[in-house]
Write a structure and sequence with these properties.
alpha+beta; six-stranded antiparallel beta sheet; four-stranded antiparallel beta sheet
Length: 146
């Protein structure tokens, strides 16, 4: 076998072996897109989970929304109002946690603190958390990007 023929066969083998990976990746993307669209309403709100989970846990967290990760809590002062934030700390991208007895989101990496509306209370973070509109409709918690 000549060198040129060998290299052609190696190239064909590489392309053929990567084909299943490409097909799997594209079908996963289509599945996620279809799921996200099925939850979107005409007004742009998306369900991120049941109200029962929010009430049982004191918060509702999902990574699989169309806007990315979302952490939803009830307003500690007025429980009919919801706050929804992207729980990614604006300092070093760690995931913040909701601490109900302190009424704050706290970053476990560098101790940045944010109020329930996502505003910085203590640094080192200097930018607020990204916030979303949130409401309850029926048994679902809905969010919408701003």
């Amino acid at each position: 076998m000549e060198r040129r023929d060998f290299l052609i066969w190696v190239g064909v083998g590489l392309v053929a072996s990567s084909l299943p990976v490409a097909i799997a990746a594209s079908s996963e993307t289509l599945t996620n897109t279809e799921t996200a669209i099925s939850f979107d309403g005409d007004d742009g709100f998306q369900s991120v989970g049941p109200v029962a989970d929010l009430d049982n846990q004191g918060f509702l967290y999902t990574e699989n929304s169309t806007v990315g990760p979302v952490l939803v809590i009830r307003n500690p002062a007025e429980t009919n109002t919801l706050y929804a934030v992207n729980p990614t700390c604006t300092h070093r991208s760690c995931r913040v946690n909701w601490i109900p007895d302190k009424n704050k989101f706290v970053c476990p990496c560098h101790a940045s603190r944010f109020d329930p509306n996502g505003e910085v209370v203590n640094g080192p973070a200097s930018k607020p958390l990204t916030t979303y509109e949130a409401r309850i409709e029926g048994n679902s918690v809905l969010i919408k990007g701003r």
